[in-house]
Amino acid sequence: LRFNQISNISPLASLTNLTELDLVGNQISDISFLASLTNLTLLRLGANQISDVSPLASLSNLSSLNLEVNQISNISTLASLTNLTFLDLTGNQISDISPLVENSGLGQGDLVRLTNNALDLSEGSEDLENIRKLEERGVEVIR
User: Distance between CA atoms of 11 and 5, rounded to whole angstroms?
Assistant: First the structure.
């Protein structure tokens, strides 16, 4: 459903057997209707108007999540998505990545993209320390 000017995704709520969903390049701001899609393993929501990702908390089977180019600042929900192996947060307003360190599932061979966010990457900053903690666990972090 890429690039279709979709803004209302409520009809998707009943498709509970979906394992992959690509909604890149639409006009979606409310993703609460995705909370029931607990079989999703791949979800692409890049290039929308999303600021609240808390509805994703129930999607514990997600292994690939694309949230690039949205309006996300709070990623605390992502701490509980322990099956993630790929996470793209490029081009948001994120200034605290500690939830990624709290995510015990992120480790060896996983990939996290963080470029173009509000991160302080100066030596000694909390953000840089958190990136290093992820890298020590084997996560490839693109900053």
Answer: 15
